[in-house]
Amino acid sequence: MQGRIINNISNTYIIEADKCTYEAVIRGKMKLEDMVPVVGDNVEFEEIPNQIKQGIITKILPRKNYIKRPKIANVTRLILVVSIQLPKPDLLLLDKQLAFAEFMKMEPIIILNKQDLGSIEEIQNIQKIYQQIGYHILVTSAKQQEGIEQVREALKGQTSAFSGNSGVGKSTLLNAIFERDLTMEGVISKKNQKGKNTTTTVQLYQLDEETYIADTPGFSTFDIYEIESKNLYMYFKELRLAEKDCKYVGCTHIKENECGIKRALEEGKIALSRYQNYVKIYENIKDKEEHKW
Ligand SMILES: Nc1nc2c(ncn2[C@@H]2O[C@H](COP(=O)(O)OP(=O)(O)OP(=O)(O)O)[C@@H](O)[C@H]2O)c(=O)[nH]1
Ligand SMILES: [Mg+2]
Ligand SMILES: [Zn+2]
């Protein structure tokens, strides 16, 4: 049989197949190979005779991609959630995640949530930066269920993962999309010190036949360091475009003169915050590279 892993807690995997869920373990000899199944994997499994909806996973089908932290496979769309207030927009994290999405070949979509807490001007300032680059940016108010239909539309036929700082409203958005309280359905959230529910494990939800959505504890610690510093500009779409006007091979776009990217910045074709975040992330990665050995 074939199915998709939607949850994993220690050695137990929950598989969804033909509208049924199965509780499965890994076949003993599979553990010897280095591939271990993760949430999002499509797998082959055998039903255990005489056991109700229980199985043994025998094979992982080829993956489109694989994210290490949190462990999840076959994510085709990354939904990057920022809130306009509480917490304030973290554009450094957003730009990091956008670069990571480009690197991993996941299509990113930005959701600007908590519209009700911000002024039109604040919202438009952020919208402008990202629309100019060509990113899809949706404005929502999850708590008031505003803008949810356009989010559902953007998720169709994809496996999407929601990411963003704690408290931006990822779980609230998911509840609005599914029109039910998902966080109450499983052991996916626990109360943090402030007594709020915070997501702690990866769980895949099926919206319709071909649409899956992951609630995750967030990708804040994810491996941006898989990108080499010299290649970072390629994952900033508007920087990549301007790079053709750089004069020197191996231009880092930071200290050099006659740099196409710095010229585009001066001409207002690149937003200052994007460039500043590029420099910060570049130096971050560079630092890691130099301390590797
Ligand atoms: N005013 C306002 N509050 C919102 C909105 N969306 C979510 N909230 C509130 O923001 C708080 C955090 O929302 P969550 O959905 O738990 O945030 P999260 O991103 O899942 O947080 P973690 O699970 O910790 O990563 C809750 O108190 C929500 O009620 C919104 O559109 N407007
Ligand atoms: Mg949450
Ligand atoms: Zn340059």
Bound molecules: guanosine-5'-triphosphate, magnesium ion, zinc ion
Q: Would you tell me which CATH topology of the largest domain applies?
A: Rossmann fold
Beta percentage is 25-35%
Task: Give the neighbour order of strands across the main sheet.
Answer: 10-9-8-11-15-14
How many structural domains?
3
CATH architecture descriptor name of the largest domain:
3-Layer(aba) Sandwich
Alpha plus pi helix count: 7
Which sequence of SSEs, written as H and E, runs from N to C? EEEEEEEEHEHEHEHEEEEHHH
**Span between N and C termini?**
46 Å
> pLDDT below 50 for ≥5 consecutive residues: which ranges?
185-189
Topology:
Elements (H helix, E strand, L loop, with lengths): L1 E8 L2 E6 L2 E7 L15 E6 L6 E7 L5 E2 L4 E2 L3 E7 L7 H13 L3 E7 L6 H14 L2 E4 L8 H8 L3 E5 L6 H9 L10 E3 L5 E3 L3 E6 L2 E5 L21 H6 L17 H7 L5 H19 L3
Helix pairs in contact: 1-7
The structure holds guanosine-5'-triphosphate (GTP), magnesium ion (MG) and zinc ion.
